[in-house]
Design a protein that fits this description.
Blueprint: H1 14-21, H2 27-49, H3 57-66, E1 75-76, E2 81-82, H4 90-100, H5 104-112, H6 120-125, H7 140-149, H8 165-173, H9 177-190
Helix pairs in contact: 2-3, 2-7, 3-5, 3-7, 4-5
């Protein structure tokens, strides 16, 4: 089933998928689950504000819980991840993991939530260690999760603290005008 409520499907086995890649009692698992839960809560709140656009609530919850699954393959020891890839790679790595799990649409959310999306030209010009392709959120659900994710960090001790809109603007603005413009467009759509 594709996002948007077209067709019926069984819910994804979120816990089973996470257990295949994360030790249940690990710091990385705890961070992934808590951050994912906060993003899911925010995404569902946003979905309620744009109900007229018919967001797929089941997909939103599942994809939000899994959007950072690729962090385990990156080098981020502060959150318990001891992989060998740069942290920025967690999006496309998560896509690859979820494609193997039979969840390609969920995987696209992983890839497209980095920053507020990336253009192939940005990846190239900044020399980012990513595949050279556009990674912009396209579907409503991808945009909602991308937006919701900006309000929560994976910093230990503040996982459950929602950032203010001004704080998100400040953080997004550090990476250039394109990202800030994309945030403002999403904020105008989702803050009603």
């Amino acid at each position: 089933m594709c996002p948007g409520g077209k067709g019926l499907r069984q819910p994804a086995d979120i816990e089973g998928i996470i257990r295949r890649y994360y030790a249940p009692d690990s710091l990385a698992c705890s961070v992934l689950k808590e951050h994912g839960a906060m993003v899911a809560r925010k995404a569902l709140d946003v979905a309620g504000r744009v109900e007229h656009l018919s967001p797929d609530r089941l997909f939103l919850e599942e994809a939000a819980l899994l959007h950072d699954i690729g962090i385990i393959l990156t080098h981020a020891p502060g959150i318990g991840c001891n992989g060998d890839k740069d942290y920025i790679c967690h999006g496309y790595l998560g896509r690859e993991l979820l494609e193997k799990e039979g969840l390609p649409e969920h995987g696209l959310v992983c890839e497209r939530h980095i920053g507020l999306g990336l253009l192939a030209s940005d990846i190239e010009s900044h020399g980012l260690p990513l595949p050279r392709r556009d990674m912009l959120p396209i579907t409503l659900e991808e945009k909602i999760i991308c937006y919701a994710d900006k309000f929560y960090s994976k910093n230990i001790g503040s996982l459950d603290r929602e950032k203010t809109v001004d704080k998100v603007r400040q953080e997004v603005g550090r990476f250039g005008e394109d990202g800030l413009r994309r945030f403002e467009e999403l904020h105008a759509l989702f803050s009603r």
